[in-house]
UniProtKB/TrEMBL annotation:
One annotated GO biological process: lysine biosynthetic process via diaminopimelate
Subunit text: Homotetramer.
Start and end residues of each Dihydrodipicolinate reductase C-terminal domain: 114-247
SUPFAM superfamilies tied to this protein: Glyceraldehyde-3-phosphate dehydrogenase-like, C-terminal domain, NAD(P)-binding Rossmann-fold domains
Name under which the protein is recorded: 4-hydroxy-tetrahydrodipicolinate reductase
Similarity field: Belongs to the DapB family.
Dihydrodipicolinate reductase N-terminal domain mapped to chain residues: 3-111
Major subcellular location class: cytoplasm
Length: 252
């Protein structure tokens, strides 16, 4: 039985995870953390500095401002942590990597199997098409999302950049420009509206033909399932930094 602490339990993803775990036999949520507390059917703490609880792993879908406090809690209690929160700064990514020398840390900007397969396909396509095709990434999300571009769009761009022999420049939205596109750019474009769960498209636009790889999340359950799976995986791991590649290496 994986005993989970859920950070951000009152949010959209927190609720999706609570529902998935309630139907899972080998996992349970022992308590939640959220900025204003709340009522979830398990204890919820807003100030958790001195909370003591028997747990195996933390799952975090909250806010970048929560990261430092949460990592301190995880390190102090020697707890593995799955971080799914996006919009982290470079310094915060470094904090995560430093923490992984003390506790097991899992990070992924997107917990779905489909997006992780899409990243692998995009890397392959970019390698084959390098030099003659322009790469543009378009993401669409609900109107409550606070970070742009999405963590997933950046992860796709980073994956593609890794597989190219010439380092690309990221161009965020295009406006007020009076010059043509540079060859070595990756364009990133964010759309926000309504209740869109999460859509990502990678365009490879070449001479007289366009290839498009796309993924559409149909509900938050795909992220919740992936996060619970990552938590079970991480609770058995030793100190280190883990990603979806480690989790899905046997699948894709
Ligand atoms: N990796 C992945 O697969 C996915 C990642 N995400 C990411 O997860 C995060 C959460 O998404 P979502 O559930 O939609 O967002 P929500 O805003 O619905 O949920 C976040 C929760 O965290 C709370 N919160 C805000 N600030 C803090 C803080 N400083 N300390 C503790 N808790 C805080 C919010 O409270 P309040 O509402 O009062 O502000 C809210 O209850 C985002 O970064 C999102 O991008 C989302 C989906 C998939
Ligand atoms: O905030 C969201 O909703 C999502 N955020 C993640 C991101 O920034 O990539 C993953 C998913 O697309 C939903």
């Amino acid at each position: 039985m994986a005993k989970i602490i859920l950070s951000g339990c009152m949010g959209r993803m927190g609720k999706a995870i609570s529902a998935i775990v309630a139907e899972t036999e080998d996992a349970e949520i022992v308590c939640g953390f959220d900025i204003a507390g709340g009522d979830c059917g398990y204890p919820v703490y807003s100030d958790y500095a001195s909370v003591s609880v028997d747990a195996d792993v933390i799952i975090d879908f909250s806010h970048p401002a929560n990261l430092n406090k949460l990592l301190s809690f995880a390190k102090r209690n020697d707890l593995p942590i799955v971080v799914a929160t996006t919009g982290l700064t470079e310094d915060q990514k470094k904090e995560l990597s430093d923490a992984s020398k003390i506790i097991p840390v899992f990070f992924s900007a997107n917990m779905s199997l489909g997006i992780n397969l899409l990243i692998r396909l995009a890397k392959q396509a970019a390698k084959i098409l390098e030099g003659s095709f322009d790469i543009e990434i378009i993401e669409k999300h609900h109107n409550k999302k606070i970070d742009a571009p999405s963590g997933t769009a950046l992860a796709i761009a980073d994956g593609i950049a890794e597989s190219l022999s010439n380092k690309p420049e990221y161009v965020y939205e295009r406006h007020s420009v009076r010059k043509p596109r540079e060859k070595q750019e990756i364009g990133l474009h964010a759309v926000r509206g309504g209740t869109i769960v999460g859509e990502h498209e990678v365009l490879f636009a070449g001479p007289d033909e366009v290839i498009s790889l796309s993924h559409s999340a149909q509900s938050r359950d795909v992220f919740a399932q992936g996060a619970v799976r990552a938590a079970k995986f991480l609770s058995k791991k030793s100190v280190g930094f883990y990603s979806m590649d480690d989790l899905f290496s046997d699948l894709v």
